[in-house]
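Q: Study each token:
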Amino acid sequence: MCGRVFVKTTIPDMVRRFEFAQPGEVERLGNSFPLWNGAPSLTYPIIIREELSTSMAGFVSARWGLAPGWAREGGGRPPVNARCETIASNGLFRKAYNSRRCLVPVDGYFEWQKLDASGKKKQPYAIAMKSDEPFAMAGIWEEYADKVTGELVRTFTIATCEPNSLMATIHDRMPVILAPADYMRWLGPEQDPRDLMKPFRSDLMKMWPIDSKVGSPRNNTPDIIDEIGRGPSDLFEV
């Protein structure tokens, strides 16, 4: 799964990097970013096409953890991931997948490798592009009206797929990462672009071990993504 991310790019720089999308409302998130240890339930900038009949994409703010308007309150924790194998058939995700897909721009994400059979001992890793450029994960989004304020609340979840050769060394899933050439197709009116939900090229990615303090979202400082010591044989690049 993908349950933690980091966004070291500032909001103005993120808008410039994804220049095809209108800035929209995300400038108000500026005080929350960079975000070095981003967890679910926080609000992030995502890119959507609100009107599929147009080619216009734009940034909006949304909370991580999908909550459809029809879902009952107290029905469990909002899902932060949607498996690509069932996203088109699962009743919780199907409608959003068909018509409300989004891009989730990040600089990287974290994953934990189990070191023993019990799963209690784990080593966290940071994963990013070798270029150190921000990239976009594939997501879907929903919105509902807050019962108290009436304000529209957007939420999203991130699609996951089988791991590439790099990620397979530590985990059995990875987020769906899209190539820039596929951004507009993912955002477009096509109902089932499932061929885009595939492992991203491992030769363009890197990962490195980090300190276990990443386990607490309260630890939100730049040193979260600092590499800890390892031997030459442990370099995870392909």
Confidence is low (pLDDT under 50) at residues 231-238. The first strand starts at residue 5 and ends at 7.
